[in-house]
Amino acid sequence: MRYGIFSDTHANLAALEVVLRSLEGEKVDVLACLGDTVGYGPQPEECCQLIRANADYTILGNHDAAVAGRMDYAYYYQAARDALDYHASVISEESLEWLRSLPYKQADGATHFCHGSPVDLEEFEYIFNVEQASTCLPILEEMGTATFIGHSHLCRSFALAPARAHEVLTGEFPIRQGFKYIISVGSVGQPRDQDPRASYTIYDTDAKTFEFKRVEYDVSKTASLVFQDERLADSFGARLLQGV
Predict the structure, then answer these.
(1) Phi-psi region at 35: left, alpha or beta (left = phi > 0; alpha = psi -120 to 50)
(2) Long-range contacts of 217-220 (CB under 8 A, 24+ apart)
(3) For residue range 105-117, what is the model confidence (pLDDT) as tens digits?
(4) How far apart are CA 187 and CA 6, in angstroms?
(5) pLDDT-based confidence at 218, cuts 50/70/90?
(6) CATH number of this structure's domain 2-242, picked from the four choices 3.60.21.10, 3.30.870.10, 3.30.1330.30, 3.30.450.20
(7) Contact 59, 51 (CB under 8 A)
(8) All structural domains of the chain with their residue ranges
(9) Sequence-distant (≥ 6) Cβ neighbours of residue 235 within 8 angstroms
(10) How far is residue 244 from each of residues 45, 186, 187, 227, 241, measured CA to CA in Å?
């Protein structure tokens, strides 16, 4: 089985369209979105529609949960709260119902999908270092061969054995017997690793290989839409241009 996996589109239609076109050329069997379709960006409804039409699996992200009324986001910083309120007011009832229906986790055999840490799904904890990955060791038996997550907007991979976790420092690697993996797939619409290009991933269970992919899109197009929309903070557009 060949999976195309992406996350954290954040209402960035230009990036999403490029990623989906690129995935068409990858000849994947299953397309999985790991959440946060909305939040921050200028085109939440268009992104909801496109992911609903294309993804075989879609997971609930924290921004999705906030817009859908499934979590308290009062502790978010003001600009993020304003964007969430704005998105909740403009997306269609059909998209709202879709967000309300999304699961915290899905599994396709030994391939698992969630938005944040699998330890406590509703808390949306981050995993972007070995210490955070190590918190999954107590539930190692419950985990699939590979658990794919988003949330951090970073491309990170961790191999877990019963005694410890360690980071996998290459962008393409074989899945080794005796290990289970947590793979953070980066972000389509708001990368935070100083690389503005959209991120997605390919996982091949037959070849037992995994690879991070990056693809260029018109970043300035989305940034301009953010700058033109007084309901969104200019900093969201500036972050896109810098990849932070």
Answers:
(1) left
(2) 217/14, 217/15, 217/17, 217/18, 217/19, 218/14, 219/14, 219/15
(3) 999 999 999 999 9
(4) 7
(5) very high
(6) 3.60.21.10
(7) no
(8) 2-242
(9) 79
(10) 24, 12, 11, 17, 8
Element (H or E) spanning 21, and its range? helix 13-25
For residues 210 and 29, the answer to whether their CB atoms sit within 8 Å is no
221 is written with which tokens?
């197009």
Query: For the residues of 147-171, what is the DSSP string, one character each?
Result: EEE-SS-SEEEEEE-SS-EEEE-SS
- The vertex-229 CA angle with 223 and 231, nearest 5°, equals 120
Model confidence over 27-86: pLDDT tens digits? 999 999 999 999 999 999 999 999 999 999 999 999 999 999 999 999 999 999 999 999
Q: Which two tokens stand for residue 62?
A: 């924290």
